[in-house]
Amino acid sequence: MASGLKALWALSMVLLVSNWQHWTCGKATPQVPCYFVFGDSLFDNGNNNYLSTPVKVNYLPYGIDFPTGASGRCSNGLNIADTIAEQLGFDSFITDFGVGGCTNFLDGVNYGSSGAGILDETGSLSGELFTMNIQLYNHKITVSRIGKQLGSDEVAKKYLNQCIYVTDMGHNDYLNNYFLDTYNSSQLYTPEKYAQLLIETYKTQLEDLYSTGARKIAVFGLVRVGCMPSNTLQHPNELDDNSCAYKLNEDIQIFNTKLQTLIKELDGKYEDAAFTYINSYEIDSDKTNEAFKFTRESCCNVMASGGVPCKSLTIPCANRSEYVYWDGAHFTEAKAWNFGKRAYKRQSSRDAYPYDISELVQLKLHDNDGDIVNHAQL
Ligand SMILES: *[C@@H]1O[C@H](CO)[C@@H](O)[C@H](O)[C@H]1NC(C)=O
Ligand SMILES: *[C@@H]1O[C@H](CO)[C@@H](O)[C@H](O)[C@H]1NC(C)=O
Q1: What's the pTM?
Q2: Which N-terminal residues, if any, form the signal peptide (predicted)?
Q3: Is 296 domain-assigned?
Q4: Domain span holding position 118
Q5: For the chain, how many structural domains are there in total?
Q6: How far apart are CA 157 and CA 212, in angstroms?
Q7: Centroid of ligand 2 to alpha carbon of 320 (angstroms)
């Protein structure tokens, strides 16, 4: 009797999961049941607020255009991860993981943490943070909760298979490690060897993510860190024709090139999964940024010349839509939208490959029970 009831209950959970669209009565229906976000300060939606670190932005003018004010996002409003959530059809913000108390984890969780990187050492000198390894650990906590909520790990896996995963990692392995004298990585590794170390570590982490049930994974490359106002001001004698610090851009391009190869390899290796590369470097090009009036200036008043964070309670630029950069390193909401739209629906084949996120949503991948196999037919 008890086991019969249990089986019935499991069956009804399966029906519920396959009909997840009906859960959301009255709300907009997202295109996928859940959306998970791994990343650094480009994606952090408030996780660092919970940590003991000076690297947090829970004060105005951050959030000046956000419905609830300063949320911990490094932006005047939304960040790139938020714009993708909105395009996926989620009508509320994806919850941060924080210290693990989040209740709304079935929609997905944002694990992003400012300062974090692929390597555990990255950012370690600036305070607590959720490195990529910790973000993956936190995700396993979420996965186990989803298993409990849906009745079994198997049902949870089917559910998790349908979701979108985005990851944006590597900026801080340069900005908050390799490019700083306080870390020894630049003495230990050539740019080439260092990029290789990052890629090998990231590969293990992406395969770990796959093992938790992730099947639709968009991996963001690195933006033009040499064009960030903080870096152009700190490297005035190393600027190229576009007024960007070319050495920094050269180093991170080594990583980007290797990352593209890795994504292609993983996409080929796992037939039941799709990995795609979002070409952040291209989407952050000057050609794209021509839509903005100010491409090399921060909208807010930063703490020191060449610094990153905005000074607390200062008045930022009046029209945030005219600026690419909100502070010394992070995008305005306007640029985040411009970016997120191209990651979601590419404007050219160079923006995202083999899939953009809208195509990733539509892909029919076969699961272990056999069914559909039409991966790579788009
Ligand atoms: C480099 O720094 C790391 C910690 O950041 C330390 O574990 C390692 O021993 C150092 N290596 C050398 C060769 O100094
Ligand atoms: C702000 O800038 C945008 C983009 O240049 C422009 O379309 C808009 O009209 C400006 N808004 C105001 C209030 O000036």
Answers
A1: 0.91
A2: 1-19
A3: yes
A4: 31-362
A5: 1
A6: 8
A7: 8
